[in-house]
Amino acid sequence: MTRTITHTPDPKLDLVLERVVDVPPKLVWAAWTRPEYVKKWFTPAPWQTVDCEIDLRPGGIFRTVMRSPEGQEFPNSGCILEAIENEKLVWTAALGPGYRPQNVSADVPLFTAVILLEPRGAGTKYTALVIHGNEDAAKKHAVMGFHDGWGKALDQLVALAKTM
Amino acid sequence: MTRTITHTPDPKLDLVLERVVDVPPKLVWAAWTRPEYVKKWFTPAPWQTVDCEIDLRPGGIFRTVMRSPEGQEFPNSGCILEAIENEKLVWTAALGPGYRPQNVSADVPLFTAVILLEPRGAGTKYTALVIHGNEDAAKKHAVMGFHDGWGKALDQLVALAKTM
Known about the structure:
Strand content of chain A: 35-45%
Shape of chain A: globular
Oligomer: homodimer
Number of helices of chain A: 4
Order of helices and strands of chain A: EHHEEEEEEHH
Mean pLDDT of chain A: 94
C-alpha cells in the first residue's frame, strides 16, 4: 500500500495551484489534516468553515460545512483516498465515507483533490491538483474562482501555520 | 497507509455475497489481481471478459471489457482504491484511473466493490461487498442478477484456482 501513482495533470480537465511557501511540510500537513486547523483556513474569508471531521485513512470521512457570508451552509462529505504523512493527501467528493458513490445530481461538478508537499529549504513546494470528470466541470470550477479561492485559502493556511 | 477501515454493509444500499470456498486466499487473490486470470472467470458464461488491465496500487486502473453472447462489448475503466495482498481488494467504478471522477450519465448505477479474504482452514471465507449510492442503484443491480451473476463468477474463480 505504500506505492503511490504519479499524477500527470490534463490541462483540459484539471486545475493546478502550485506555490512555494515558507512553512515546512509538517505544518502544512497538520493544517490540512486536523479539523481544528482546517476550520481556520479552508474557506477564504468572509466565508467560514464551521465544522470539519477527518478520519485520516483510506476510506475515512473528509467532511466540511462551509458557511456563506449570508449564513447559508454547504455540507460536503467526501472520502480520504491516500494519506502519506507530510507528503501526499488525496480526497474525493465523488465518494462518501467508506467509498460509497455519491448520490448527487449530474450537474454538481465532483472532483478529486491531490495535495502534494515537497521540502524546499525550510519551506514547502505546495501543489494542489484538482481532477474533474469532464471539461464542463473543470470550466465551472475555474469560473467559480478556483485559483483566487484556493490561493487565498493557502494564504490563510500559511498565516495559521506560522502561529503553530 | 496500512490502517484500513471496517465496512458495515447497509442492507438498503449494499449487496453482499459471502461464501466459504475450498481454495486458499493467495489463489483467490491471484485470480482477482492478475489480468490473465480475471479474463477466465470474471463474467458468467456465455458472457466473456475479453480484455483486462490492472495496475495494482491505489489510483491504478482496473479495466475490463465484457462481451455479451451476441458480441456486444462493454468496456469499464475503474480505479483501484486498496490492495492488501491476500486480504482486501477495493476498486470503484465511480472513479477512473488516477482517481478521476467518472463522466457518466446519472442513470448508470455506479458501485464500489470490496473483496475480503480470510483464511478458513485450507480455504477462504470470501466476502464481496458491493456499495451503491442510493436504493435505486442497489435495486437495479439486484434485479440485473447480482447474486446469481457474482455467485456463478465465483464458481468459475474457484474452478480456475484449482488448476493453478
